[in-house]
Design a protein that fits this description.
Blueprint lengths: L32 H31 L2 H11 L10 E4 L5 E3 L11 H10 L1 H11 L4 H28 L8 H25 L6 E4 L2 E4 L2 E4 L1 H22 L5 H61 L1
Antiparallel strand pairs: 1-2, 1-5, 3-4
Length: about 300
């Protein structure tokens, strides 16, 4: 219920339950319903236009140009780089592969490392404290942290493409791609430092895993992941520098394509009508010819009869 009567302005109380105003007698729910209906129609048209504009720009940001199509593909493909192996740590006891599913390395996988870390956090941090935060365990876990951060930044960069569709020249995805690449580089650096800090025949408790006579190296998957992220960064950068069309330009192009299509359909309809008229004319001429030949034959037979 309105707080005041829309006709006379009388203040309405909570106990005014009747539809009619006590002072002027107007029906409050039906007062000026035509104007309200027009307002609702205008509001609906405005919202429909806003929705159309949003979807138009959303589609353009993803597949509006060939460059943008390649960009969205290359922003998704780097996920492959987090499945392949990045690093491997080998020892005469256990081996650990920073490989998500262990498809390319032997021993414990990255999933095993995550499971054991979150299940035995105190053990990991205790062993890190024994190293003084500068041993193979500390550096490897820091490398894994940078790996996770790079994945997080890459995912954010991908979704920025979707969320910034109203700003087709936004550089947010470029920033997050850059952060992702830097995180990968940092991950490789700290892992290498950690491996090189281990002396020969050193025994280390890697969390809950015993390692002895440790060796390790950066795997090919690390470079694959880095290359894919760099490519994604390049394409996002190129898109941010490329010319972008506004909703008005896209709408003009759409209307132009629509007009062109309608014109082609109109021309085809005219040609179809002409073809039908020509076919009809030919059929009538053929029918007239057949009738003429039939009459000629009849006349010839009649002439023969008269001669006899």
């Amino acid at each position: 219920m309105a707080s005041t009567c829309p006709n006379c302005g009388r203040r309405l109380r909570w106990y005014d339950v009747k539809a009619e105003c006590k002072d002027c007698g107007v029906s409050i729910p039906n007062f000026n319903w035509e104007a309200r209906l027009e307002e609702d129609a205008d509001l609906a048209a405005e919202k429909s236009l806003a929705f159309h504009k949003t979807m138009n720009m959303f589609a353009y940001s993803i597949w509006g140009t060939k460059l943008r199509i390649v960009r969205i593909i290359m922003s998704f493909i780097p996920i492959i780089g987090y499945i392949v192996p990045w690093f491997v740590i080998k020892s005469d006891a256990d081996s650990i592969g920073i490989d998500l599913f262990g498809l390319f390395t032997d021993g414990h996988t990255l999933l095993d490392l995550f499971k054991d870390f979150f299940g035995n956090t105190d053990v990991f941090f205790t062993n890190m404290s024994y190293e003084g935060g500068s041993g193979v365990l500390s550096y490897t876990m820091l490398a894994v942290l940078f790996m996770v951060l790079s994945l997080l930044f890459a995912v954010i960069a991908f979704f920025m493409i979707l969320f910034t569709h109203k700003h087709p020249k936004s550089k947010l995805m470029v920033i997050f791609d850059c952060l992702s690449v830097l995180s990968v580089v940092a991950s490789g650096i700290v892992f290498t430092i950690g491996i090189k800090s281990v002396a020969a025949e050193t025994a280390v408790n890697f969390g809950i895993y015993p390692l002895y006579n440790i060796t390790g190296n950066v795997m090919w998957g690390y470079f694959v992941a880095l290359a894919l992220l760099v490519v994604a960064f390049i394409f996002n950068f190129l898109v941010s520098k490329a010319d972008a069309k506004s909703h008005e330009q896209l709408e003009e192009e759409r209307l132009a394509r629509k007009a062109e299509k309608e014109e082609k359909e109109r021309i085809k309809a005219i040609e179809r009508e002409k073809a039908e008229e020509e076919a009809k004319k030919k059929a009538e001429e053929e029918q007239a010819r057949i009738v003429a030949e039939a009459k000629a034959k009849i006349e010839a037979r009649e002439a023969k009869k008269h001669k006899k």
